[in-house]
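= Tokenised fold =
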Amino acid sequence: MNSEHSLDKRHLRNAFERAATGYDQAAVLQREVSNRMLSRLEYIKYLPDVILDAGSGTGYGSQQLAKRYPDSQLIAVDIAWAMLSHARPEITWWQRWSPLHKPQTYHVCADIEQFPVKDGSVGMVWSNLALQWCNDLDHTFSEMNRVLHTNGLFMFSTFGPDTLKELRQSFARVDAFSHVNRFIDMHDIGDLLVHNGFSTPVMDMEYITLTYPNVISVMRDLKAIGAHNVTQGRRQGLTGKTMWKKAMDQYEALRRDGKLPATFEVVYGHAWKPQSRQSVLTPETRRQLGLMP
């Protein structure tokens, strides 16, 4: 990734730490996309033993998955401890020390680009609108493949390149700084899945447009969910009043029926970790290929 558009992970973590308290009130889109992902599971007849929620936030997806798969163990992973703390249920002192108390969900503070999870230990990796916060998606998919066991499922949603196009276009006419995070095309994501050993990837996309009374409301919502600009190429100081007004005037030109649009290109995908090719070779074939038995 171009260094200008690479994400500052320290800044990212701090943004989500600050957003944790008010996140649920603002995360309307995140919940809606999560619900749409859950509905897709209706067509996938699979019962994972262990589910890893990659980028679990305040736990909405984990809670829904726990209801759907009551016998599965869940591992909720997020880069911001404040998000995980918000998600963790209250546990009494006797439950904490009781050998009979076995939590269904374990909360782990970590970057999803480097899981502290052993190889082949997970039946399904679920990730709702978190992959766009990864600098190296190729490596991230390699990690997803590593932790999944054979025939495990990877299911995710993320943002495509048309996300917040109105905001990006408005600032692009004002200065050369990066004001909106960059997002990867659906077809490139599919190619990366295959490159990292996943089979039969299924990809699709839809546009979801939210409307706002003014630009300040757009920016306030993005800040409330920790989704404001965290690229390395962002302006380090405050945007001047003159530049800000020019960008806002550009955005105002897009007003329709009294509302300003904010477009999100939502990419959905799922793929399976197949049996390794080596493991399905017969002993005779292995001998013919000169492989060790």
Q: What stands out?
A: Residues 28-40 form the longest helix (13 residues). The two ends are 41 Å apart (CA to CA). The mean pLDDT is 84.
